[in-house]
Amino acid sequence: MTVSQEQVARGEPILSVNGLSAGYGPMRVIHDLDLIIHPGERVGIVGLNGHGKSTLFLAIAGLTGWQRGSIKLSGHEVGGTRSQGPGRHTHKVVRRGLALMPQGDEIFHGLTVEEHLDSGAFTPKAWRERATRKEGVLQVFPPLRKLMQTPVGRLSGGERRMVSLGRGLMADASLFLVDEPSLGLAPKIGKSVMEALFAIELGSSAMVIAEQNVALLEGRVDRIIGMHVGKLKGEASASLAQHNRREA
Amino acid sequence: MDFGFIFITAITLACIYGTLAIGISITWSSLGLVNMAYGFTFSAAGFGAWYVGRLAQDLPLVADYPLLLGAIVIAAGIVTGALVGVMVCALAFIPIHDKPEFTVRGLIATLAISLIGTQVLLYMFGPRAKPLPTLFGDWKVSFGDIVITADKGGSIMASIVLLTLTLRWMTHSRRGLEIRAMMMNPHAASLVGIGVRRTGFYVMALTGGLAGLASVLLSQTYFVSPFAGLTPLIKGLSVALCGGLGSVQGAVIAAVILGFNEALTASFLGGQYVLITQFLLIIAIILVRPRGIAGILDRAREA
Amino acid sequence: MTTIWKNPHQVWHAAKANPEAPTPDWTDPTEIWRKKRTSHAKLYKVGRLRYYHKWGGHGAKLWSRLRYWPTRRRVLDIRSEYNPKTQRVEKTIVDKRPIWWMMALMALAVLPMLTPGEVANTLLGAATIFLIYSAINLCWTLVIGTAGIFSLATMAVVGAAAYAAAGTSVFWGWPWWTMPLSGAALGLVMGVIIALPAIRLDGFYYALLTLGLNELCRVYVIQSKTFGSATGGLYGADSFIPQSASQSTQLIIGYYGSFVVLLAALLLFRLVNGRRLGRILRMAPEKREAFAEAAGVDYRKARIHVFIITSIALGAIGGYYASYFRGASPSLFSFDTVLLGLAMLVIGGLGRAEGAVLGTLIVVFFDKVLIDLGALRLVIIGLIMLFVVLFLRRGLFGIKEQFRTWRDKKKSEHRSARAEKGGEMLPEEATETEDKDELYLRRFDKLTRDYLKTLVTDEVIEEHRRSPLGQHSEALERLLIYFRRQPQVDKYAITVIEPFKSYRIVALSGHRGVAPRVVEEKVYTSIHDAYHGVFMRRVQDLLES
């Protein structure tokens, strides 16, 4: 499962990050980073705690303390230099087709699961087709079907994660950024959540998954990129990574 | 003692207070702003309604249908309230909403706006109180013992209709979902594409409109004056506080309780004891449930 | 621009070597180092570090022996040290605030003698009100700033105490000196009652509740016949100001009485904020209460203590107020009074004594001295308040700190956002690197490359094309030496496809047993062309880095 040549040849990457630096106050977390994601790709970003995986995602959504460098989402510039007001332009970036599923569950406690999924489909187009989209999400996460009218505040951790991911999938997005989907879950549940993510048909959109555990990603994504101290280090197509592991 | 009268008075007060309190409650929970300029919004909307009503009185069509005049005046009140709400938002919410210590600064900024605004109203319209035209005509319905006069019946109807519409809008529309999502988790809200600033304008326009409605309705019994906003602000705040800031059901229940308290106290003990009993009641509720009545209703797990 | 380089080997008639070649002028390779090492930051005489005036001579010991009785607090915090250069003793005042306070208080003490005759009455009246309100606001600052209870019921306590004290005097004929005492007693009662909900409520719920309490007092007083709903207040109380004296004497007595009240309030502020209670509460700032609690700090109790102590003080001030004005009026409870009081606190800066006093000064100046402006003065106060709240984080006295924070933020952002590719390693990265030599190696490499980039010219490339091997001009030699020195990973090499006929450029893997990879499809027909091809690739890589 590699990116077909014509997809690459078609040009126009979904995300192209060029010279991105970002951080919070005096601390710089991302150093001058370049990244290109093509349509149809499923990319894994692997790195230890505190090496900037989440910050990279937040910077793409415009949620870090400051940032500079170009971020092009489907050809539109959403980056630039910014030194204050984190989150002030996030909704515009989201409307350009970004769905960020953040670390930890950023959920709305009082809304029911159904309302929650609706809230994910916030762009006008997605809102119109929210019924079919909801059906799609329920196919991916079948346990949610029974919980549709339950307030999210009463769900368990795994169920919350499904709701949080499902909300991201509801969006009419061309780029899904998934931040540590298995964090804090029991290994078995985490694995099933990951499986659900791998099962999603991407079509012309792309998905980037940040994860600490390489084993969960191996063989299931097109590329694995290592991240070390705010820089991307070493890239391997999934088959190569698997090969190296077998050698070792 | 005329229990029918007390009952109707209580329900009327509950409706109006509920309208006020829900506005305050929504502002606090979705924007994190304690809107102290609510009283100013209230009196400005009253003046807007009065001004439009005076202009409209002379129109030929209006003279024939007095109810039409009522509708125009109510609409004018709501629109003025919404406009003032938008102005307060632009002045006190937009510049500081992502700065440190926003809650304290927002509170003080709205206080400053109310100080300035009241003086401006005083300058423009003078200190004299202005009466509004009768809104709901002159009729009477009696159910056995209970007599409902036009102003009370109209107030009850108008506020219930508008509150129901607002609540339906909040639960069923996309904008309503937007506001409720902001109430629960502003950070996550921006992640699903909700712009905090734009939502701020919606919320303040909505709550301003509610204040305008309450203003027009209350002006049936009281008059419109620059300083008229203070008592409703305090009443609205205490109802919202008692119901639990951020909870709409809590606010409705609290409005009913406090409305009955006011009607009962006024007829048994006298007008000057209304606030005293009211505060004793609130302190009692708050001491048991620090988050107000909503603390009893809310069963969702926190965090 | 160019000079002609002559091949020294020409003497021996070296084969195929260039006899001479144009080459760029010699430039000093250390120049770039020197430029890099000089500081680009402007140096100011004063400003980078905090500036302290130094006075000479001994005597710091004397200052540290001088204590306020009965505390063990020093009068001035003076540090003395030997100047390492001149070997003389120097003294530095570390905290100059006591001096400012002394100067301000002395100015206040002599103010009545300095006021010009025609405006003396207005000015002294306003100044007296300023003193009383300063005292009230100091107590309020203790509640909001130190105790962190957002109470708006301060004026309610003052007003209730004023009414109670006026009542004891009017109805029971108690003398004036009992009025602050009876006021304090009522303040204690009010404080306990108001503090009760503060145990359960947090932040803004409490603010709203106390605002309501204030309104409750106002409505009650306005509607009550005993407290003068008809006469507009309760008047006729005994006063410390003799009625027989002339008007100006009365004003001056009132002024100095209020001055004493302010001094007492300052003392109270110092005692509460600067000692045990204040320290406990500073350990438990907002949103970190749980941590303080875990560390064994009973901040709730401390808050309630501060609240009750200030309520007693406010009650006493209320009693004094009633005695000064010979009564009390409902305007004490009005919303505008609360609003103006809050404006005073906010303009100066919440939580500090100097802020409360300065804010009071500004607001009282607009409200009482510029009384001719009419309603406009309230608008002006409102605008100042709005401006301060929108732009300043901690009022006027916080400007310095806020500016410093902003400057530091900008500076550090600028520093960390600076992207020098391949040069400096940033602190975050440097701490993660195991081999610290790497830091210096990178910096050296960056500077070397910067210099070498200046050497790449058409002449040098042409010289290399003509003869890739053998003796070269200095510029070309420097480039080649740098290229040859590169590590084995991804180093370019030439592989022979067919001897003397076709060659190809590859890149070494750098690992034993791993074959080099082909970098370009182009096939060179002679070894010289291949040499030059490698050179051109390296030059290109250098210029791109």
Question: Your description of this structure?
Answer:
In chain A, helix 4 packs parallel to helix 7 and helix 6 crosses helix 7. The two termini of chain A are 23 Å apart. Chain A folds into two domains: 159 residues, P-loop containing nucleotide triphosphate hydrolases (Rossmann fold, 3-Layer(aba) Sandwich); 69 residues, no CATH class. The longest helix of chain A is centred in the middle third of the chain and has 14 residues. Chain A has 248 residues and is an alpha/beta fold. The N terminus of chain A is likely disordered. In chain A, the strands form two sheets. A six-stranded mixed β-sheet of chain A has the order 6-7-8-3-9-10, with helices on both faces. A four-stranded antiparallel β-sheet of chain A has the order 2-1-4-5, with helices on one face. Helix content of chain A is 34%, strand content 26%. With 303 residues, chain B is an all-alpha fold. Chain B has one domain. Chain B has 13 helices and two strands, in the order H-H-H-H-H-E-E-H-H-H-H-H-H-H-H. In chain B, strand 1 and strand 2 form a beta hairpin. Chain B is globular. Chain B starts with a helix and ends in a 6-residue tail after the last helix. The C terminus of chain B is likely disordered. Among the domains of chain C are: 40 residues, no CATH class; 233 residues, no CATH class; 107 residues, no CATH class. Chain C has a three-stranded antiparallel β-sheet. In chain C, strands 8-9-10 form a three-stranded antiparallel β-sheet, with helices on one face. Chain C has a two-stranded antiparallel ribbon with strand order 1-2. In chain C, helix 4 runs antiparallel to helix 11 and helix 5 runs antiparallel to helix 6. In chain C, a hairpin with a 6-residue loop joins strand 4 and strand 5. Helices cover 58% and strands 8% of the residues of chain C. Classes of the chains: A alpha/beta (248), B mainly alpha (303), C mainly alpha (545). Chains A and B meet through helix 3 and helix 4 of A and helix 7, helix 8 and helix 9 of B.
